[in-house]
Amino acid sequence: MEIDGSVLEGGGQILRNSISLSAILGIPVRVMNIRAGRSKPGLAAQHLKGIQLVAEMCRAKLKGASIGSTDIEFIPGKLRGGHYVADTQTAGSISLLLQVALPCALMADGPVTLDLKGGTNADMAPQIDYMCVVLRPLLLKFKVDFSWKIHRRGYFPRGGGHVTFDIKPVRQLQCVDITEQGDVKCVQGWSFVAGRLPIKMAHQMSEGARSELINLPNVNIQTYKEDPNMAPDNCNGIIVACETSTGCVLGGDALGRRGAEPYALGRSAAAHVTAALHCGACLDTHAQDQLIIYMLLCEGRSAVKCGEVTLHTHTAVHIAELIAKVKFTIKSEGEANIISCVGLGLVNKNIPT
């Protein structure tokens, strides 16, 4: 199957979703015009390692897998359990390596351990903490779970982070209905600095977040400096997670960069949460696209309620419909949108009932 990597979002997500679905469904793919929408087209280290990781997991035949390549062929074999290592050798995002490999691990023939190395808190990608405290509770609704251990933090530009994930395969994913926001129960936050940066910056990010969350109950934001043995390089950032009475988890995060005021960073992270709450959404903008692949694998009808549908989500839906032939509907409901589909009901026959 030929896939045009330049459509819609035109970046790494087309590649990740195509490779994951190819491995899971056993459909050979050729992805062309890879990252055509980017200033540096073609495979970067992070994308290459993600493809190679899934290729190793399913003993795939791979052509065109090199830095800068804009055209690859991926011919999958059988997904197998085991211990796999992927090292970007840059600050390339560990979260995006997990994003491509996790759905595949669920359909393997045994437990999977992933040792992933690169950036734990990287720009243009969810921070690893977001994946664990926001995305994981949402995946639990599909009966998907993973455990993790952060050995070392990795930041731009050196990377060097290391996280281990343990994943048990499942027989079948459970469909979800995440369309009732409920009432806010609590908001947790983690505001950190690392390296030579002063703890004052963590307090300023926390204050910025609190100013945005002032009308919400039970707000608790921890401020801390990372252990230098765990995180020797400079970085600052904040993660915010809001839990509601119906089990929704909405998150937001922000990462320090040159010239960015810590107070404004904290406020922007929290604003992701308040914006989602305001429109009645049950998912934040970072989670909506990541759930598409799990919805299409489920048995039965799944529905999720989000705010404005992002370009990443439209892209994930496009790839899902193209490769898996699952039809998604997007229906507006006030300021929110409900995304739904009837999944494939894929069964992992390696796992007993």
Automatic annotation (TrEMBL):
Catalytic activity, as annotated: a 3'-end 3'-phospho-ribonucleotide-RNA + ATP = a 3'-end 2',3'-cyclophospho-ribonucleotide-RNA + AMP + diphosphate
RNA 3'-terminal phosphate cyclase insert domain sequence ranges: 179-275
GO terms for biological process? RNA processing
Q: State the UniProt keywords alphabetically.
A: ATP-binding, Ligase, Nucleotide-binding
Query: Which is one Gene Ontology cellular component term of this protein?
Result: nucleus
Tagged with keyword Ligase: yes
List, in alphabetical order, the Gene Ontology terms for molecular function in this entry: ATP binding; RNA-3'-phosphate cyclase activity
Q: Which sites bind ATP? A: 99, 286-290
SUPFAM superfamilies, from UniProt?
A: EPT/RTPC-like, RNA 3'-terminal phosphate cyclase, RPTC, insert domain
Note the superkingdom of the native organism.
Eukaryota
What is this enzyme's EC? 6.5.1.4
Which top class of enzyme applies to this chain? ligase
What family, per the record?
Belongs to the RNA 3'-terminal cyclase family. Type 1 subfamily.
* Main function: Catalyzes the conversion of 3'-phosphate to a 2',3'-cyclic phosphodiester at the end of RNA. The mechanism of action of the enzyme occurs in 3 steps: (A) adenylation of the enzyme by ATP; (B) transfer of adenylate to an RNA-N3'P to produce RNA-N3'PP5'A; (C) and attack of the adjacent 2'-hydroxyl on the 3'-phosphorus in the diester linkage to produce the cyclic end product. Likely functions in some aspects of cellular RNA processing. Function plays an important role in regulating axon regeneration by inhibiting central nervous system (CNS) axon regeneration following optic nerve injury.
Protein name, entry field: RNA 3'-terminal phosphate cyclase
Q: Source species, please?
A: Papilio xuthus (Asian swallowtail butterfly)
Source organism lineage? Eukaryota, Metazoa, Ecdysozoa, Arthropoda, Hexapoda
